[in-house]
Design a protein that fits this description.
Elements (H helix, E strand, L loop, with lengths): L25 E5 L2 E2 L3 E7 L9 E3 L9 E3 L7 E8 L19 H10 L4 E7 L10 E14 L12 E8 L1 E4 L10
Antiparallel strand pairs: 1-2, 1-7, 3-6, 4-5, 6-9, 7-8, 8-9, 8-10
Length: about 180
Amino acid sequence: MSTTNLNGADISPHNRRTRVGGSGFTIFFWENDPIAFARQVAHTSPAPVGPGAVPIQPLDSRHPVQIITPEAISMGTMVIEIYELYGQKVWDKLQHLSNSDDLVDIFHKVAQTNNPISMKKHINPPGGANQKPYTETYHRCVITNVADGETIEVGTMEVLKQVTVAYTHMTRSTTRNNQKNN
């Protein structure tokens, strides 16, 4: 069996290019601490402000003469699904938030932090990917919601809670897509 595709690219198993999300290949951090017992992180990228792209089309034109786009974006969001542990709330392990009783307490503690909170996504490519680890940092994070309710039934084997985080902007490390030095 050939290990190249029709374009001649190496597709053999040792040349891994497809990113794997779980199994320690992607780790999320709140400040400098890993977010323990996270089951899933759903990220929604910032969208353009306003209506987005707008066609400029005079009444006497059959086609737009120009398309204008905003040069600004709104906030991004992350919904983190965390396994609840006995004797603690899911946010207790997030820096600045331990011993918060409810969402109002969390809002207050986030507002009282001296420095803006950041989240970081650390991507660890497998050995065969020939890539260095790289990061994405989400800046000026605030918690906007915690889904702390629950439904328990006889077959419930896990209790998951959702923490929603908004951020102002994201930066990527410069090592992204750099080849490893062998």
